[in-house]
Design a protein that fits this description.
By secondary structure, the chain is α+β, with helices and mostly antiparallel strands. The protein has two domains: 182 residues, Porin; 161 residues, 60s Ribosomal Protein L30, Chain: A, CATH 3.30.1330.60. Strand 3 and strand 4 form a beta hairpin. The strands form two sheets. The chain has an eight-stranded antiparallel beta barrel. It is elongated.
Length: 352
Amino acid sequence: MSTAVQRVFAFVLVLVFGLGLCLPVHALDGAWYVGAGAGISRLSPDTDGSEFTLDDDASTAAGVYLGLDINDWLAAEAAFTDLGEATLSGEETIGYSALSIGGIAYVYGERDIRARQQSLSGYVRFGLNSIQNDASIDLNKADNTALWLGAGLQLPMGQQWGLRGELTSYDGDAQALMASIYWRSERDDRSLSTRKSPTVRAPATNPPVAAPAPAPTPKGAADCLVPAPGEPQDGQGCAALSGVLQGVDFVAGSAELTPVAQALLTRLAASLNQYPALVAELQVHTQVYPEPGRAMQLSRARVLTVARYLASQSVDVKRLRARAFGSEQPRADNDTAGGRRLNNRVELRILP
């Protein structure tokens, strides 16, 4: 990549970062992401009126991109892509590279950004790009600014990273099919604390929510809990069911289970149904919220949601106990996104 191109790309990156810093109202806090990928390209330079013919239009492509989430379904993105070379007669080649800036709109899958990071989603992209050519022959260059259009699928592989597959058109002469890996920064969810959670009404058959009461200090996932009588054990002799239910999360600020959480609870229900004599206590904790009573309200709604889901998977409701603790038993500092994620948790205890 030439020095001039590097400078232009650096300018684009600074522009995107500057927009994110200057417009905090329009961007989600901490919602940056970066990615890199590779694939195949099709390059079709116009050889009409020249002495050359196109011998090979297939090449390899590689690129990097930087994005900023504007809201739950829209993101701004800048990218640099090396599209490879087209081969002409006489063993001449024309190299292509593109500087692009535009947006991504998520049109398939979850609309909430946290839920989307746990399930497959589809998107379309749009914007402008500047095509740069590198050739040893004279070219009849037209305006090298063109539309940046594409569509793709995004598959999360963890809380902060995942995979993408995308087909993109840079102009009539260049298209690319690429796969990439991305990493997303840790989001700050304090701005979501004012969202209203859906009202959850428990039918008479659902387990009642007990008033908060002293409970053992929650232990980390790495701690070994002593199994209750009749509870299965893992290979180290630790409780196989009791503990924090890792991955059982809710859509931010609500009592709605994520798709990943539903899958995990389905597996938990199958395990509980293998031991019909066990009684399980569900304990739900939340982060601290500025509104009085918000944490307890959300905790009560969430524990009922979990209990109902297990009951829908044939777990006898008489075997379930539900307890809502609100924000009374934090595991970490509530001032950081990582701490709040630890504080928002569902635990299970097999009762003696």
